[in-house]
Write a structure and sequence with these properties.
Layout lengths: L1 H14 L9 E10 L4 E6 L1 H11 L11 E7 L4 E13 L5 E16 L2 E8 L2 H13 L5 H9 L6 E3 L5 H6 L5
Parallel strand pairs: 1-6
Antiparallel strand pairs: 1-2, 2-7, 3-4, 4-5, 5-6
Length: 176
């Protein structure tokens, strides 16, 4: 499963089309990540994952790559942690690719049939913001990404942290 996922992830980064990734999720999957101290992103169900996680949230990040550097598998619980980093397709004035520092990763719950029923991403939100602001100051940030940054928490799928308990969404799926 993780081999198929990583291969599809690499292909999506090269092509800029993240939509095929939705085929790896069950119809009722939950996909979330933290957006700082006030907000969470959460998509419930394959359609929201398609439209929001791989649609509006990836808009402006076409051709960014997320190479996996390590995976840890708990075959008893059916859980996987994948550690990756985030690399832009553009280079800074020194010729280095823009890269979000810190650890990024995904925690998955496997549902069988080559599908995830739950995914929780984690990354350094402050470092991501710093990279985007640096790209903007170097006139390297796409208009699409600039618009997304202006919208902030008004993007689809963003909810107040107090309104979403990510841990309960994991425990609900433990018996699968």
């Amino acid at each position: 499963m993780i081999g198929r996922w990583v291969e599809a992830n690499d292909r999506a980064g090269r092509s800029g089309d993240w939509s095929p990734m939705v085929d790896f999720f069950t119809e009722d999957a939950v996909y979330s990540w933290n957006n700082g101290h006030k907000y969470e992103f959460v998509a419930r169900g394959r359609e929201e994952i398609r439209q929001w996680a791989f649609g509006t949230e990836m808009a402006g990040l076409e051709h960014w790559t997320y190479p996996y550097v390590r995976t840890l598998i708990d075959d008893q619980k059916g859980e996987i942690i994948g550690i990756w980093h985030q690399v832009a397709p553009l280079r800074d004035p020194d010729g280095e690719p823009y890269e979000i520092a810190g650890t990024g990763g995904s925690w998955f719950r496997y549902a069988g049939d080559f599908k995830w029923c739950w995914q929780r991403d984690f990354f350094d939100h402050a470092n991501a913001g710093h990279v985007f602001l640096t790209m903007a100051s170097n006139d390297h940030l796409s208009e699409t990404m600039q618009e997304r940054m202006k919208k902030g928490a008004r993007m689809p799928g963003w909810v107040k942290r107090t309104d979403f308990d990510w841990y309960s969404t994991l425990t609900e799926r433990e018996d699968r």
